[in-house]
Amino acid sequence: MSGLDDQIKEIEDELQRTVYNKATSKHIGRLKAKLAKIKEDAVQRAMKSSGGGEGYSVKKSGDGTVVLVGFPSVGKSTLLNQLTDQKSEIGAYAFTTLTVVPGLLEHKGAKIQILDIPGLIAGAAMGKGRGKEVIAVVRSADLIIILGDVYNGIHIDVLMKELYDAGIRINTPKPDITIKKTGNGGIRLNYVGDEALDIEEVRSILAENKIMNADVLIRGSISQEDFIDAMIGNRVYVPAFIAINKVDLVDEKTRSEIETDLTERFGEHPHMISAHSGYNIEELKDAIFDHLGFMRIYMKPVGGPADLEEPMIVRSGSTIEDICRRLHREFVEKFRYAKIWGKSVKHDAQRVGLQHTLADGDIVTVVTRF
Ligand SMILES: Nc1nc2c(ncn2[C@@H]2O[C@H](COP(=O)(O)OP(=O)(O)OP(=O)(O)O)[C@@H](O)[C@H]2O)c(=O)[nH]1
Ligand SMILES: [K+]
Ligand SMILES: [Mg+2]
Predict the structure, then answer these.
(1) Residues in the ligand 1 pocket, defined by CB under 6 Å
(2) What are 191-229's pLDDT values in tens digits?
(3) Are 32 and 118 in the same domain?
């Protein structure tokens, strides 16, 4: 074991031994901050090291980018080929794919870029097995599919840990924390909402990063981990879901055991698929569309029929104003009202304003001054 591993293990052991309560919270906060700092420094060193060659250059395209993350040979390339018309090399041996292979999935009117990447292995966050280049691609994705197969579904948490260590936070909103360093005055703490951490915890965590003077603003409920993330920075917040491939190779009983186990551990049903036979692939496409937070909006020109062929793909929660900006900025300036047919309104052709929030499948007419 290297000195680094020893150091990490020592802190992890102490954390495990220490029971969390009011009296220990400060000490625990400090230990966690120390651990996070050591890991982040190691990750940064790995990312800077020259070994491993050039980073992959893939240009993002389409309405969103999805990356297939998994151990070697779980079937990432087979899945890419099933979802898109790309032909990524498939092989019954580890590390068949040595670079990033992009493909295009067109689903429900959305153009979705899918990235097949080399297999991820334990230690990837610290640069093992081209980890440096692979992690950089994963960090920039709009959605991560964590792909396992029926033989290694049990080890999905190893992948999760690598992503975590690489500063990737999955399925969590970015905590609303501002830390503004100041020249003096010590640590000043302000809350909007409940007092999530006390001043002593905040002080000891910041001290671990040698921050002695700062104005801190916390909105909403947060954990010590969230605060440490905000302090260290360099975190990305990405949605993700789990899919388990090669279900054609096991019987019904094994399949449902894997499914139950993963659902219990991660709180969400994994998608059970066969990239080879195409089993559940249409459902997987729907899941990709939904997890990207996409909606389809159909435009209907004034007095004309709606264009039901090519929807505009927008993020859920989008408003009329977002649509107008996408069309042309004049649409916002000269906006009078919009008319909607669909789920976001009570009756057809209802008039709404710029702040109206749309729903998937809505038909929209924008009426402007001349
Ligand atoms: N039975 C079965 N075999 C599959 C399935 N998907 C992939 N395979 C096989 O699994 C092996 C690995 O598939 P790949 O697509 O190369 O896996 P990969 O994850 O891209 O592998 P690396 O690029 O090496 O990391 C190949 O022999 C595939 O034919 C599946 O759904 N069912
Ligand atoms: K392979
Ligand atoms: Mg591959």
Answers:
(1) 70, 72-78, 90-92, 94-97, 118-119, 245-246, 248-249, 274-276
(2) 998 888 889 999 999 999 999 999 999 999 999 999 999
(3) no
Query: Quick check: 267 and 170 in contact, CB under 8 A?
Result: no
- Helix or strand run (H / E) with residue 217: strand 214-219
> Which residues are CB-contacts of 166 (< 8 A; sequence separation ≥ 6)?
43, 124, 125, 131, 135, 138, 139
Q: What's the distance, CA 271 to chain centroid?
A: 17
Of all protein residues, the one whose alpha carbon is nearest to atom 21 of ligand 1 is 73
Same domain, 81 and 161: yes
Same domain, 309 and 322: yes
Q: What phi and psi values does residue 67 have, to the nearest 5 degrees?
A: -115, 140
Same structural domain for residues 137 and 258? Answer: yes
Q: 106: domain CATH number?
A: 3.40.50.300
What pLDDT is stored for residue 1 in this prediction?
A: 52
pLDDT digits over 264-315, tens only?
Answer: 999 999 999 999 999 999 999 999 999 999 999 999 999 899 999 899 999 9
pLDDT band of 20, cuts 50, 70, 90 = confident
